[in-house]
Sequence to fold (93 residues):
Amino acid sequence: MQIYSLLYIERSISTTIQAQLAWYPILYIGGPRQSGKTTLLRTVFPEKVYFNLEVPEVRALAETDPRRFLDQLPAGGIIDEAQRVPILFSYLQ
Fold:
């Protein structure tokens, strides 16, 4: 029997991310697929609500009613795959 444990490697960018949010209300993290962007954000901000726009029902709400979708994030949140709904960026300006 093998026992697997999650290994969290603290990234030096974690401190930078937190510092930037002191100045800016929105932060975009970009990079190649499967590079750990979502894991990083969910580790740095475990209390934030998480939405994945790859999920058809979630994406449909974001596309058809962006304001109602964003109203679900009064204290901020993590929006994964945001490029799937480009109209959201207009509402986030």
User: Anything to note?
Assistant: The longest strand covers residues 49-52. The CA atoms of residues 1 and 39 lie 27 Å apart. The mean pLDDT is 88.
